Amino acid sequence: MADQVSKIIENPTRKAFAGAIPHNQDLGIEPLEAEGGHALAKLPYDERLVGDPETGVIHGGVVTTLIDTVCGLAVMTALDKPQPIATLDLRIDYLKPAMPKEDLLARAHAYKITRQVVFVRATAYQTDEKQPIANAVGTFMLTGRLGPGAHAGKKR
Question: Residue 100 contacts by C-beta under 8 Å, 6 or more apart in sequence?
Fold first, then answer.
């Protein structure tokens, strides 16, 4: 995890994204990497986000929000020009509960861009990306107008 955190980016996309969604800001979601259709975000452990007080496990809805957020960030960095997007579909397989008192990380990759839809894969994990707590696939609709001859994003 130290290697991933050392790659923290400082760019306008990260700064704009961090303040653009109040809900994500309230949860404490921190974008760490965002470039070329790839994104990494962190959700620091917080007792407020616990779904089961007996175990201390983070609520599944919070994990969903983290995954949706990192997928959206990957989509935004895959596009040639900024434009509004909307989550069209997000399927998440929860593989195991998150360990209490551990931060969550999520990584996403926008792997296919069409004129109106972007396809994304994501993984949520804690200390080891090869031991995910959840895997996801999603589609995001491009809601902005591109105009004649414009392209949604970089070819992949």
Answer: 45, 50, 55, 56, 57, 58
